[in-house]
Design brief:
By secondary structure, the chain is of the alpha/beta class. It is built from 6 helices and 11 strands.
Length: about 325
């Protein structure tokens, strides 16, 4: 008669974990110890897991009882759960939250971010939809400087976004947004705004209050124009508006935005004649050329620096122990 119990060895990273299981127990029971991709309802026997079987465990450890992980999080003030195949935020996270500065849960399948998220000071990207985000929790993060919610299914941004007055970077690229809230004008510390690859048809005039903006990416939307208030963005250095139906720019943009040196208008309806008619075009073109030359000079410098470093390394490799070069 076949034995009712079987011995299994589970390989996880460098560990070998011996397991004794009843042969007719379900895969679901086995999964309480290890992660797998088998049919939960089948028995181990039906899944051809027999005595002496070896199973390679892939995925992540059980976050519910890893005290070493908790200590690491508290010491580094950094929780990294990226690409962990998570469907929810582990309970283990919340007791550590008050001391955490960076919380990375990117590239998972998390369906809900609860109100308790207000324990953190930085939120990174995740697979989220409108219904799953607790905006009340997020907008209570008064010290939040970076909000990165790209590559999701967001249809709207709430008016309460304007409460994040410490925000310096907002990345909501690759979503389904059709507009930006008027309250975005309250983000006076915002330096980097990325809303590319959405369905936005207009930009609120309140954008002119975001005078700290250095780079704005509006590429691949449904824009036909930019508000004149863009001319108030005196710190703006880079503006990306490619793949839009924009026909013209605010006439004083180049003159008022005296630091602007990068402009991407590919696949728009803006012609060279249109640009030449804008106030301050000549000054902008001079800045653009200077920026281009500086970038080229930097690349040459870094290349020369690398070559010099390579020479030193090669010299060391081909030197005798007494410091003289090998013949």
């Amino acid at each position: 008669m076949e034995e009712s119990n079987i011995n299994i060895t589970v390989k996880f990273i460098t560990e070998s974990i011996p397991i004794t299981a009843w042969h007719d127990s379900t895969v679901q029971r086995l999964k309480s110890i290890l992660a797998g991709i088998l049919d939960n309802e089948k028995s181990l026997r039906e899944s051809e897991i027999n005595n002496g079987a070896k199973i390679m465990l892939v995925g992540t450890k059980d976050f519910r009882a890893d005290k070493g992980l908790i200590r690491l999080w508290k010491v580094t003030k950094y929780i990294d759960l990226a690409e962990s195949k998570l469907k929810e935020i582990p309970r283990l996270v919340w007791p550590c939250a008050p001391s955490i500065r960076i919380f990375d849960i990117s590239y998972n399948s998390i369906q809900n971010v609860p109100h308790r998220i207000d324990c953190f000071t930085e939120l990174r990207e995740n697979d989220l939809s409108d219904e799953s985000i607790s905006w009340r929790g997020i907008t209570s993060l008064k010290l939040l400087q970076v909000l990165h919610l790209s590559q999701n299914c967001l249809n709207t941004l709430p008016s309460t976004l304007g409460l994040l007055t410490s925000l310096e970077r907002l990345d909501v690229a690759d979503n389904l947004l059709t507009a930006l809230p008027i309250e975005i004008g309250n983000l006076t510390e915002l330096e980097d705004l990325n809303v590319k690859n959405n369905r936005i048809s207009s930009i609120p005039s309140s954008i002119g209050n975001c005078t700290a903006l250095v780079e704005v990416d509006l590429s691949s939307n449904l824009l036909s124009e930019l508000p004149d208030e863009f001319c108030s963005l005196h710190n703006l250095k880079a503006l990306h508006i490619r793949n839009n139906a924009i026909k013209s720019l605010p006439n004083s943009l180049f003159r008022m935005c005296a630091r602007l040196s990068t402009l991407d208008v590919h696949n728009t309806e803006i012609t060279m004649d249109t640009l030449l008619q804008c106030e301050g075009w000549e000054d902008f073109e001079e800045r653009r050329r200077a920026e281009h030359q500086e970038q080229r000079a930097f690349k040459v410098f870094k290349s020369a620096e690398f070559d010099a470093l390579a020479d030193v390394i090669l010299s060391d490799l081909f030197s005798d122990t007494d410091g003289t070069s090998a013949s």
